[in-house]
């Protein structure tokens, strides 16, 4: 929902657009998709944050609950009513995958 056109065009954040610069950090390899560095400068002060491993990576995994929440958010974003109806069953089957006797039951939900 954060990236839908009406949300992006909201005037509340547009004042920042001209104040933001995106600059590649030469200390981070070009194809490194895990690390990021953010520097915020305001009234002569600078606050810096570096993330070595993005959330959801093997080094910084999501909890099961976070993963389930993300799945439901993706399903909701899809706008597919059928997918929303099946989502709880999909989660239930995936979370108990070691007890599933016939993977076809899960595949039929997808």
Strand content: 5-15%
Characterize the overall form. Answer: flat
- Quaternary: single chain
Judged by helices, strands and strand pairing, the structural class is alpha+beta
Number of strands: 2
Element order, helices and strands? Answer: HHEEHHH
Uncertain regions spanning at least 5 consecutive residues: none
Counting DSSP H or I runs of 4 or more residues, the number of helices is 5
Can you lay out the helices and strands and say which pair or pack?
Blueprint: H1 5-8, H2 11-17, E1 36-42, E2 45-51, H3 64-78, H4 81-95, H5 103-109
Antiparallel strand pairs: 1-2
Helix pairs in contact: 3-4
Structural notes for this entry:
The mean pLDDT is 88. A two-stranded antiparallel sheet has the order 1-2. Helix 3 (64-78) packs antiparallel against helix 4. The chain is an alpha+beta fold and 110 residues long. It has helices at 5-8, 11-17, 64-78, 81-95, 103-109; strands spanning 36-42, 45-51.
Give me some keywords for this one.
110 residues, alpha+beta, two-stranded antiparallel sheet, 5 helices, 44% helix, flat
Short description:
This protein has 110 residues and is an alpha+beta fold. It has helices at 5-8, 11-17, 64-78, 81-95, 103-109, and strands at residues 36-42, 45-51. 44% of the residues lie in helices and 13% in strands.
């Amino acid at each position: 929902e954060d990236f839908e056109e009406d949300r992006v065009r909201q005037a509340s954040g547009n004042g920042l657009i001209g104040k933001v610069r995106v600059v590649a950090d030469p200390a981070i390899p070009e194809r490194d998709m895990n690390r990021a560095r953010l520097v915020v400068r305001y009234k002569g002060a600078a606050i810096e944050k570096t993330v070595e491993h993005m959330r959801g990576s093997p080094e910084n995994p999501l909890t099961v609950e976070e993963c389930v929440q993300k799945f439901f958010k993706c399903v909701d974003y899809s706008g597919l009513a059928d997918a929303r109806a099946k989502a709880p069953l999909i989660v239930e089957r995936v979370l108990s995958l070691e007890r599933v006797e016939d993977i076809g039951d899960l595949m039929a939900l997808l």
